[in-house]
Protein 1
Amino acid sequence: MANLSGSFINLFAALLLLIAFAMLSQRRILSLINLFALQGLVLTASTAVVAWSSHQSHLYYSAALTLVLKVIILPWILHRLIRKLNVKWDVETLFNIPTTMLIGIALVVFAFNLAAPISQMAGTIVKSTLGIAMACVLLSFLMMITRSKAVPQVIGFLAMENGLFFAATSATYGMPMVVELGIALDVLVGMVILGIFFFQIRETFDSLDLKHMEKLKEE
Amino acid sequence: MEIFWILAFPLIGGLLLALFGCRSFAPELNTLMSFGTFVASALLTARVINDGPITALQGQFFVDSFNVFLVALTAFVAFTTALFSRPYMRIEQAHGKLTVKMLRLYHSMYQLFTFTMLLVLLTNNMGIMWVAMEAATLTTVLLVSLYRTPASLEASWKYFILCGVGLAQALFGTILLYFAAEKVLGAGGTALLWTHLDSVKTELEPTVLSLAFVFLLVGYGTKVGLAPLHSWLPDAHAEGPTPVSAVLSGLLLNVALYVVVRSKVLVDGALGTHFAGDLMMGFGLLSVVMAAFFLSRQKDVKRMFAYSSIEHMGLITFAFGMGGAVATFAGLLHMTVHSLTKSAIFFAVGHATQKSGTQLMENISGLIKTHPTIGWGLMIGTLAILGMPPFGVFASEFLIITTAMHAYPWTTPFLLIALGVAFAAIFGRVQKMVFGETSGKRLPHPPALLPVFVHLALVLLLGLYIPPYLADWYRQAAALIG
């Protein structure tokens, strides 16, 4: 049975990596939000499998928390926001997708190398996935750098948090419950504050394009 | 019990002000709540001095001589800033820059911001420290964008994204720390408690801890404003309301550095080498030098003093990085005097910019003619922050530089040149602002300058004479940090 759950976790890890690449190249905001929700769903499934195979009952709670927060509430807030902001059908022009993908592959290799010495020490059955978790974090970071609009940048930020969460479950069977709850609260409050912020930005600049916001720098 | 009140006052204050923030008594309520926090922290300080370190709530909260002095400092400066912000924000309102609704947001977030900082300082759980630090970012994002001008929105977006990404690194560092701790302490809630980690620090896996420290230093270092991760700091200071600049510079940077130092203690124990200290010295020295050279290019007065904060935080990080009894003592003293002096300067600068209607230094002049107290406050504050004797900043900088001369002689020229450049840059500009002719109008409300002079008097006192119990206290804290 341990073999089977191990294969499932590897499958989910591969899916997460695939979704991270898909997000990197996705131009439409609406599809980006759906990809983010899908990422949350895969994360929930993998956390539940880890919980089942390692008999760590607190991981069931964090799987449930992930499901509620990242698959239901956050995508719902994002959908509402883009409808109200009228950017639902926005298509972003991305600079040179093939190059971005190649940089992404280099980042994955780097992440695996960085994680190798640590995964060897991990006692969990899912140690090989730590490299993938780090790769997801770095890919989301790359996504934040390449985007010039506010909403995709925030989705990149949330995806980065997903990668960190995956790192925590794969290396240590999750953080203590009180910390996980605190992180979830921060993410939720952060999303609400950003929602207010989007409206302020649009009111002032008449757009959510961040290229208007490059005035403050050292001459 | 004191811990409960320290956290309860700002939290309840934040909620009350969210409800009643539109009433005319909101600034007074804000001050009252900050005063309550300050009294509670004074009682806690007295207890820790008498009884030694205390833990509460099954070890979830922990107070020793290192964090108790930061708790007292944070509560004190938060209180004096609330005193300052009462007339300051009234003048802003009279100038038509703020509406009642914005003031409600401001007061509520001010209290919640104080709450998150005190939570970082009091908690024993490294995970909760991260959560509270992130919450501190979230509360200040809305404070920085309070004026809703294009520049302030840009500044707070930059602040949010940079500190958010920075803190994501710190979270990864915390995960790695937990990963190492879990092997020794077992899974569950206690493996992230600092006191537990401290007791087993020699058994923690060195490779994991050194990697964790790199992530923690880069992550929390973004929040400290260490170069090259500092670029959010001048923008946030210049575009946010002045009381917020004062607490950002005076308190938040200290609190972020506190977390770095707590992590350093663990890493030093696990590695037994000077690895963490070397990293901190490198980042600190780079910040000092870089900030000094950016100082001379500034046109905006709040931006200039923000760069000065980067310089001083770099100096403190450098001092903690060197380690040893004297350098750590000097670092702690410098934390205290920098916090007091820099917030006093921001108070004076705030009123000066209100009077001149601009933050551009070339358009501010003759402060001493119309408002001698603002002028003198700014002048004395500047002399103090530049390290002139007999102020406390001189004492701590002197200790840091003499230790550096003994232990790391090659750093001395960098430090001395940077301090010299900073002196020339700041002093020349402040002199032009304070003296000379003016056409500025008088302010619609009397300015609040009591906090400025209270802070400066304390800094002067610390330069002339450090009371024995305070010196003991610093020494104990320095022994804890090592």
Protein 2
Amino acid sequence: MELHLEQSIIELKELLRLDDRDGLHELLDYMRVQDIAHALMELGEEDLIAVFNLLPPGRKADVFAYLDTGHQIRLLEASPREDARFILSEMEADDLTALLQTLDPDTLRGYLRLLPFRAIRRALKQLNYPEDSVGRVMSPDVVAVDPDWTLKRALAFIRRNADEHSNNVIFVVDQDRVLLAAIPIRHFLRASADSPVRELLGDADPITIAVSEHAVEAARRIQHYDLESLPVVGEIGELLGVVTVDDVMDLIEAESTEDFHKLGSVGTLPLSPQEASPFLLYRKRIGWLLGLVAFNTIGALMISQYEDIIEAVVVLVFFLPLLIASGGNAGAQSSTLMVRAMATGEVTARDWLRLWAKEMGVSLTLGLSMGVAVSLVGLWRGGPEIALLVALSMTIIVTVASILGMLLPVVLNKFRLDPATASVPLVTSLADIGGILIYFTLATALLGLAIP
Amino acid sequence: MSPTEPDLDTLPQALQTALTAPTAEALQSLCAEHAAPDLSDALEALPAQQMEAFFQRLDVECTADIYAHLESDHQSRVFQALDDEHASRLVAALSYDDAVSVIDGLEDEQAESLLETLPDEDQEALETLLGYPEESAGRLMTPEFATVQPDWSVAEAMDHLREQSDLAETINTIFVVTPTGELLGWVRLKGLLLSRPTTSVRERMNTDVVSISAEEDREEAAHRISHYDLDVLPVVDDNGHLLGIITVDDVMDVLRAETTEDFHRMAAVGDVVLSLRDASMQLLYRKRIGWLVILVAVNILSGLAIAHFEAAIETVVALIFFLPMVIASGGNAGAQASTLVVRSLATNDIKPQDWWRLGGKEILVASALGATLAGAIWLSGNWLGSLEVANAIALGMFLVVLFGSLFGLLLPFTLTRLGVDPAVASAPLITSVVDVVGITIYFATAVAILGL
């Protein structure tokens, strides 16, 4: 299938080159909308617009929903007003909100003017919820039935108000639209058509999420309870919308990507590196790099304090990069384990002390093993005294860096910062400075050199 | 906030209290009141003995679903604590896909003797599933699904589904097959409920089916479900016969596991199968020491590189002050580049063939990054050293950052070419290689410029 998509893209490009309109129509008819969207994003500006315009109006709207916002905006700008109006009014409310929230106020106003009045109100209401909240990602059009209706009437009502967001459950609400239950549709199979919906209400309260909560919490809840859709409620429990599992999968992927980038000390990148301009990439990366250079200047200053010792025993310098790099590596390992464990929710506040104690044990054994390994090199390059020095330094540096690596995400979290924030390079740089200090202090003590 | 949420924190204590009661009544009512995923979380917070007692005292009817949600190491511990007969009944009560993952965690002999105690039908089904390659779509699927035939009327189909609804994992989406089991299309249960009883299934059937073959990688199954926004993905053999189904919740777990694996690899940690909280000290040590020792070996080369420039160091000791800063910056820039590429490859954002395009852009970006950092280090060079030294280290910085970035960008692509997971291009690996090469570049530049 994947091969299939790749082939379709090659064929599409070939047909474009030959300008074979019939061929293009035939190919597009045969492709799925998700694949067309995927293929469109691989094309250049002109081809993108040309191919999109070949699609029949109904499919245009479907394909449009699967494009990323950058391409959506480019197409809207290139489309005549009438087409843009049609596409926007055909969009699902949650997809529309996702697009509108990326626009600046002026452009936003321009596009809103194209929409029917009801849709404008709905869009503005959804944009009113805080950024990254459940309210921004939910689908507000949700059909719900009354508990006193018969099943027959409920089903007829659902048929009239065709709703693609709750395929597998039916929401039941009271007069104030307070959610009473989410009935799995399979329960309708067993019941008689003339019995009231009320008979199918279970004892358990439905699993819901508040509209103001963070969207990531919706993802967590859907994953935890294996749900296909999660109803969203307001303050008194009134049904406001629904979040579905496919929305959540995109959300989880985006969240993981953000964590990855933060761990690698890249700023939040709204685009894929493929599309991002060199200037954007530069901006997102230079901040941390410069910050870390400033940080490492402390290291340089510290080494300069030990100038006399270095001149006296040059062999000390040989082991410096080895020692501080090893500390950084061990710290990177423990901070990544911790960041990921915190992101998946398997480690919580209660566990920190226990994990910390365990890390002490693990890092001490890691440090000892590496100390033994490096002492052999010390013996070869500098003699027994140097061997003892580097082994001891290695053990202490690795232990300290590992524990730092585990603590740093916890500390960042305490200060309400994302634990993934540049943990790896930050730990590495901390390990550099700490390593230099530990190494030269031990050297002065062990080798009986004058303290500067 | 879900209504059940407030007492989630107290659920472990409630379980503990119920466990001390002489009868199982209190336990049973807790099970009835709470969702299985919450109960399994609460049990995981209890001491091992109490968790085992819970499963020993209650019948598999209540516990099977809770057991299915436990982490795999807890599953095997509970399994060992049950007597053979109870354990066999528990596994028989699980859905096949969950049973397969339990059996996967057992020793071969134990798995064999367990399979023999199961009913023939289960034994046969499980053996077939276990026959598929590890991490394949076949291992992930469940063979329990509901099907209907195209020539049936909607009323006939519903009668049939009523009988099957207890056996199948999900009947929200029902597959339409020929009498010999060939997959033709699908219908939604909701669609059937909303149709006239006399309509034929064929009329309601959707023939646009996305499917996967049982031998394919489970990651591909996950990709297909998220790409096409599916609830259920049918698994077929070479002749198009329906073998099983994969549901979206199975796939979310796969995606989470794969992402965690990538995170750990990026930090040069081996695959940790357990959660960080539960992993033993020995396991954590084993998973981390391998890469650390390999990286020590790489870093020993950096010592040798320094030794090579001993004369230069003795003449201008100030060069050493800036060494950690320069090589750390190169490593950091490389880690950024590899993080961006590894994540984009994992989310299918970029393809292995894109390397030259991204490489070209990276030269631009890295030059700008290098120039900025060179400016910064030139200032501190003037402060701690002299103008000449500042010039030398600034040029060194520029070249090392350029090298680090390009190396970090290209290594994941090269690894993909070689069929190795690109996430092996971890930050520590990149940092260490950049250390060695960076030291050489740095001193070589200094020697050339300062004429040493």
